[in-house]
Structures are given as structure tokens and as C-alpha cells.
Amino acid sequence: MNTRKPPVTLLEGQPSIAVKVGAGNKAITWNLPKGLLTHISPFFKAALSRGWFEAQAESVDLPEDDPAAFRLFYKWLYTWTLSKSEKYPTKITKDLDALLYVEAWILGDKLGCPHFQDFAYAHLDNAGPYDTDIAKKIYTGTPEGSSLRRWMTHVMVDWISTGVFTDNNRDRWANTVADINDFATDVLKYQILKEKHTLADFMLVSDWNDFGFCNEELGAQKVIVFHHHGRC
Q1: What is the mean pLDDT of residues 165-184?
Q2: What's the pLDDT tens digit per position in 136-150?
Q3: For the CA atoms of 80, 84, 85, 91, what is the dihedral angle to 10 degrees?
Q4: Between the CA atoms of 44, 18, 87 and 150, what dihedral angle is there, to the nearest 10 degrees?
Q5: Taking the mean position of all CA atoms in its chain, how far away is CA 181?
Q6: What residues form DSSP beta bridges with 33?
Q7: pLDDT tens digits, residue range 91-111?
Q8: Euclidean distance between CA atoms 89 and 86, whole angstroms
Q9: DSSP letter at 184?
């Protein structure tokens, strides 16, 4: 199997860019090769182009983003994996684990990295059980029609049809759907149109060979068999 990693030219001899993520005493700074960042992320390519203050200072400040989510991006940047056994920054409950993957997907959207978003999504789908905070984060952090909203709608309709709700969470989920107008609309439209999807339909990248240095190991993530177990 080809285990090729990012080309050495993107790692060696590159100026180091300080990427500060988060605000206040919770902020964390990563020093990353400029070539690797600008190759992978249109956001960083623009931020580090001539004329931007950040480019002159050789730094990028992301005060509104989640350091834990960026740590996943940092790991993926070098290894092309997101290990569920590694919890950042401390031990995370399963629900927070799922929230972290949502945050990672949203970060990937900002950075223009659909491959990273697909990795985050693959782990999100296997990170249940989910609480209502998942839906709230998805519908406040992603635009109308996003694949993550469509996935959440798919999950909700599946739960409704299979009756997996419990006395402990039925009212919470009912109230969440009622409180988020776009969520309620999406669920109703999905049911009326009787849409049929596999969970792989919510991936963003159709051709993993367009990335410049994808390897077989990374490409194999595209054909992960997703298992949805009626979790809520």
C-alpha cells in the first residue's frame, strides 16, 4: 500500500506560521509550515497572501474557533487520520465527542477543507448517542442546505420512523425541533418527499484523487461503510 505523506517540499524549508486559536487564557498557538497550510486550505492561502496584516506578521489569529477542533485539524494535517481513542484536550464524554466532530466539520468549512470535513463527518456518524446540543450546534453553525444539516435531518427522520426515543429524551428532542424553525422545516420536507439516502451521500468529496498527494490509505476513508444504529 502506498503510505505517502505530504511532500517534503511542503514541510521542509518553509517559514513557520503561528496560528493562534481561541480567545483569552484558553487560546492555543500552533506553529505550522506555511507551504502545507496554503496548499491544503484556501482560507490560509488568502490569509497569508501579500497585503494581509497577518501575512506580514507571519501569524493568523482565529479567536472565534475551538482549539480542540483545531487540534484535530492539526493531527489530520500530518497523519490523515482522526483517532477516536485520542481525546482533546482531556477525557471527553461520548456526547462531547460528537460535538467536537461537529465543531471540526464547521472549522473545515471555514478553512475550505472538504476532505477534513469528511473525516470529521465519518467519525461523527459513529460517535453517538447524540443529545439535542448536536442539532443546535449544527443549525447555528452551518448554512442552509449544508450536508451536515441534511445528515441531522436524516437521523431525526430515522429516529421518528423507528421509534427509538425514550421517556428521558422524547420531550427534549420534540422541543428542539419545534424551537429551530429550519430544522422543523427540513424534517417535514424530508418526510413529504420521502427522500432516500445512504450515509455516504453526505460526504463532500467525490474524487479523492484531486487533492494533489492523496494516498490509498486516505482514499479508503471515502468508502467507509457507515452504520447507523438508531441512536439518540
Answers
A1: 91
A2: 999 999 999 999 999
A3: 120
A4: -20
A5: 23
A6: 16
A7: 334 445 889 999 999 999 999
A8: 9
A9: H
The per-residue pLDDT for 211 is: 42
Residues 93, 81: Cα–Cα separation, whole Å: 20
SS3 (DSSP) at 152: helix
Spatial distance between the Cα atoms of 206 and 47, rounded to a whole number of angstroms: 27
CA-to-CA distance for 139 and 182, rounded, in angstroms? 8
CB 17 within 8 A of CB 31: yes
Task: Look up residue 102 and give its three cell numbers.
Answer: 461537529
Helices (H), the chain: 34-40, 42-47, 53-57, 67-79, 94-111, 114-124, 132-141, 147-162, 170-179, 181-193, 216-219
Name the nearest CA neighbour of 27 among 71, 58, 57, 82. Answer: 71
> Could you give the CA distance from residue 147 to residue 12 in angstroms, rounded to a whole number?
36
**At 90, which amino acid appears?**
T
60 Cβ neighbours under 8 A, 6+ residues apart:
17, 18, 19, 20, 44, 47, 48, 54
DSSP for 217-230, written as a single string = HHHGGGG-------
Residue 210 neighbours by CB distance under 10 Å: 9
